[in-house]
Amino acid sequence: MTTSATPGGAATARGGARFAVADPATGEPFDEAPDQSADALDAVVARARRAWPGWRSDPAARETALRAAADAVEAAADDLAPLLTREQGKPLAESRAEVARTAARLRWFAGLTPRTRVVDDGRPVHSEVRWRSLGPVAAIVPWNFPLQLAAAKVAPALAAGNTVVLKPSPHTPLTARLLGSLLATVLPDDVLTVVTGNEPLGARLASHPGIAHVTFTGSVPTGRAVAGAAAQTLARVTLELGGNDAAVLLDDVDVDRIADRLFWAGFRNCGQVCMAVKRVYAPAHRHAEIVEALADRARSVTVGPGLDPASRIGPLNNAPQLARVEQLTERALASGARVAAGGRRPDRPGYFYAPTVLTDVPPDSPVVTEEQFGPVLPVLPYRDLDEAVAAANSTGYGLGGSVWGTDLDRAEAVAERLECGTAWINHHAELSLAQPFAGIKDSGVGVAGGPWGLYGNLRPFVLHRPTEA
Q: Region Disordered: which residues (predicted)?
């Protein structure tokens, strides 16, 4: 089987191989996408490598093209957002926000350039640290934020002068293909190519000898496999992996004031956010109050298809993830946990699961120690603050964490003790384009976001020149 690039910059499989794409709100297929042969990646990567010298040589043209790309995404919001909701499941308002963030990221990186640094070490030599692009970048993105995470990888890679082969999840290939079509109208040929398909496509891309950098977002087990595949060619890797973020509530917390923020920090995008709050630690004497505040919101929020304007929480994205969430909840209940809200599938088609708040959960239950990635939130009591911090730090994850309380100095002191890449006070999972984003422990390798994300797509080149003839 051979491939060709469509006008939309998406590699298409000749020979007709395709796979179905389901609507999470119904569980039924509504469209299909090309199933790219792993063997056919050779041609795609070869074209990306041939396009690289021209792209890397003209920073001004790159800036102009990326700004035009941002404009193209914004202009197509009415096409992108409904399609994103249809294949991912999130409410349409969240899809529109994701489209806006995608455009904003492209525009932000368009204006970012690396800085040459002069190193003066006292010798009669003028030494400069300059920066060079890497080559073709493999960007492998998951299904929870198909556009936003694509832009988080594509924008800095392109701004740095690399070309990109973008592989979306087979659960959400359609918006990535549409994004590729839009950007193909403003980018040179083969600077960005979208490939879609089932495994072993991702493994083949990660291990391809023509790829210089593999940037991946997804689960820890898959991240380990990606790193192993990239090691075959010694390609650079950036891995943004799972999270099991803890929210530690202090005894002076104003529950009425923070309850909405805390709820949505756990349940936005149906809990399918790597840095969502996935565990809450509450002072024992206020535990019941906090459980009820969260449960009240879980019981009253409108759950439904993302295209329904009344829906605030949509379905889970796919059947395997629904099964995992249901299994984790059932195991917790079997070990003594109680349901304060939710805890079941509603009687309707699609991959829905009621927003669930759990109490009396054993601390070693998998719903606490593992990443649920769904609308289930355990609330655990603590009697001593040191106990809460130790529990928050006890998992293998280290993406984010938060502390909630009235005394900000005290909250900051507690946040300093959290073993994670980002800690928030009285909010959670809010990032700006200008700041770095990185996890520790099993939550990742490398840095995304801000200038750090740009430099992660570059390598230093040092030039020495004598100051005397």
A: 1-37
- Residue 122 Rama label (left phi>0; alpha psi -120 to 50; beta): left
For the cut 80, the answer to whether the pLDDT of residue 200 exceeds it is yes
DSSP SS3 for 209: coil
Scan for tokens 């040092």, then name that residue. Answer: 462
Q: Which of 454, 453, 424, 426 is nearest to 437 (CA)?
A: 453
Residues 11-70 have pLDDT tens digits of 544 457 999 999 999 999 999 999 998 878 999 999 999 999 999 999 999 999 999 999
Tokens of 56: 């890397």
**Which runs of consecutive H residues, i.e. helices, occur in 268-415?**
287-300, 319-334, 366-369, 385-392, 408-415
Q: Is 211 helix (H, G, I), strand (E, B) or coil?
A: coil
Contacts of 131 (CB under 8 A, 6+ apart): 114, 116, 160, 455, 458, 459, 460, 461
**What CA–CA distances, in Å, run from 87 to 99, 144, 203, 240?**
14, 10, 23, 23
Inter-residue contact 29 to 20 (CB < 8 Å): yes
- Given a cut of 70, whether residue 2 has pLDDT beyond it is no
Tokens of 358: 């759990």
Determine whether 63 is an active site residue. no
Q: Specify the pLDDT at position 10.
A: 61
Query: Would you say residue 9 has pLDDT above 70?
Result: no
The angle at the Cα of 81, spanning 435 to 89, to the nearest 5 degrees, equals 90
State yes or no: pLDDT of 73 exceeds 70.
yes
Please give the Cα distance from 360 to 356 (Å, whole number): 13
- C-alpha 193/C-alpha 286 separation (Å) is 53
Distance CA 431, CA 373 (A): 19
Q: What is the pLDDT of residues 417-439, one digit of tens each?
A: 999 999 999 999 999 999 999 99
Q: Choosing from 87, 94, 98, 240, which is the catalytic residue? A: 240
Query: 127 has which bridge partners?
Result: 119, 464
pTM exceeds 0.70? yes
b/e map of 108-142 (b: 16 or more CB within 10 Å)?
Answer: bbbebbbeeeeeeeeeeeeeeeebebbbbbbbbbb
